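Good morning,

Attaching, inline, the backbone tokens for the sequence recovery test we're adding to the shared suite. The designed sequence is right after.
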């Protein structure tokens, strides 16, 4: 999709413009190829840039700050679904005359949420337009205990859920904050959450040893694991639980995270429920 879209726009596009074209394409698709977060220059996809690095390694894109096809990168328009070809053609037809500030102004006007963290909005838009953007910011001054798993989500989808929930602190309760899935190892996840104005903390003491997670097949297997976790781990983590309880009681909106999408099969649910018990605030699942 990246190569085909780039080819449609001539094979060479600036970084900011290409993100805008890709974002507009996602609005045209039945199932969006990419998702976006509100970043420094508006809509931004971490996943698209991860894929760009892969395409550079494969020799299909040039290793530059801009998006440039190599000679081997052409011809992909013939290899994607017809519906996506139609979407690319539609975006090309409607927006080929837009670039630079005109393109940014259009996207910010139509999709103001994605301009919330923009560093260039005030240089491009009027004061009243900037005020309209501010109105789309999710705001809540109430403390919260939230729970989220990243299974099945791209980094961008995951971050937007946190951002829209006005999360202040992402609490990673994995024993080892490493993932084969792009974006969810500690360093990248910390950097990405902080780039959107949230804080990241990792509390490995609240995790479960990897060897105990093997051979989990039935729900009873998970239930037995979590019973053991409560009895032999959680009750000895008073310091960690007290620190999280204090944050919530002081008005912080936390989100406890681990891998599994199914709450019944993730120990973050046990952690969240315990914080809920200590604070009296019901857990909200994101």
């Amino acid at each position: 999709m990246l190569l085909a879209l780039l080819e449609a726009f001539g094979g060479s596009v600036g970084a900011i413009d290409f993100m805008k074209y890709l974002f507009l394409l996602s609005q045209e698709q039945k199932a969006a190829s990419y998702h976006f977060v509100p970043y420094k220059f508006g809509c931004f996809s971490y996943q698209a840039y991860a894929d760009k690095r892969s395409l550079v390694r494969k020799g299909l894109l040039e290793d530059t700050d801009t998006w440039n096809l190599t000679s081997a990168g052409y011809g992909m328009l013939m290899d994607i679904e017809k519906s996506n070809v139609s979407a690319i053609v539609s975006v090309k037809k409607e927006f080929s005359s837009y670039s630079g500030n005109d393109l940014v102004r259009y996207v910010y006007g139509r999709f103001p949420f994605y301009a919330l963290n923009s560093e260039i909005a005030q240089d491009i838009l009027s004061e009243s337009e900037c005020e309209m953007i501010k109105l789309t910011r999710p705001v809540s001054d109430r403390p919260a205990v939230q729970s989220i798993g990243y299974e099945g989500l791209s980094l961008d989808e995951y971050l937007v859920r946190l951002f829209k929930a006005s999360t202040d602190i992402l609490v990673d309760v994995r024993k080892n904050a490493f993932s084969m899935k792009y974006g969810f190892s500690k360093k990248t996840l910390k950097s990405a959450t902080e780039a959107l104005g949230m804080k990241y903390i990792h509390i490995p003491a609240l995790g479960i040893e990897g060897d105990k997670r093997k051979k989990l097949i039935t729900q009873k297997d998970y239930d037995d694991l979590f019973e053991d976790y409560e009895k032999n781990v959680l009750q000895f983590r008073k310091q960690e639980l007290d620190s999280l309880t204090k944050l919530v009681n002081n008005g912080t909106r936390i989100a406890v995270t681990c891998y599994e999408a199914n709450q019944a099969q993730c120990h973050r649910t046990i952690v969240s429920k315990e914080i809920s018990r200590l604070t009296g605030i019901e857990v909200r699942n994101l």
